[in-house]
């Protein structure tokens, strides 16, 4: 099966109750599945989001505006964080970073000569501060002189032609899944960790917690200066 925790749980039932051998492949744009560094669909999603953000930056620059861009990530900030770094955003708001709102305010409270004429803030849909529309209202109240706009990329991130990296990842994992079944393995997921194939039991894959790299949170903050 290809999917996330729900797909894994369903496949586990098929195996335990009906004896159907099942091996799971991690497929979600959120990249939040335990047992693999990257999930199928993630690279395509961040490239799709990045393409949109590059276009938004042109408008932000030419019209000297602040844009708050909401990307997917109900429970995790993988997309938001990677897109913020790759897109040169001035801030990233993600569920995993409780201090991200203070960092954004610090950016807007810089002394006059250090302020930028435009900014892009990336927010994951699941961030505690709220989505793009809520943040637009909050920042407009705090900084009435700024021209602040919000954009929700939405389900466009789930579509499009798969990136080369996703195609290679899917091919590699699919091949390993077939090998696992032929070897008699079942109720496991196939993933890639540190560029090596790994197998994770369904129970651990479903209940395990995967978090963003703290070093990337720090990097995003450094690059936002």
Main pleated sheet: 4 strands, mixed
Tally of individual helices: 8
* CATH hierarchy class name of the largest domain: Alpha Beta
Number of domains: 2
- List segments where confidence is low: pLDDT < 50 over at least 5 consecutive residues: none
CATH architecture of the largest domain: 3-Layer(aba) Sandwich
Strand content: 15-25%
The portion of residues assigned to helices is 40-55%
Q: Kindly report the oligomeric state of this protein.
A: single chain
Q: How large is the radius of gyration?
A: 20 Å
- The CATH homologous superfamily of the largest domain corresponds to Phosphofructokinase domain
Mean of the pLDDT scores? 91
How many β-strand runs? 8
Along the chain, the helix and strand elements come as: EHEHEHEHEHEHEEHH
In the sheet with the most strands, the strands line up as: 1-2-7-8
**Structural class per helix/strand content?**
alpha/beta
Named CATH topology of the largest domain: Rossmann fold
General form: elongated
Distance between the termini: 43 Å
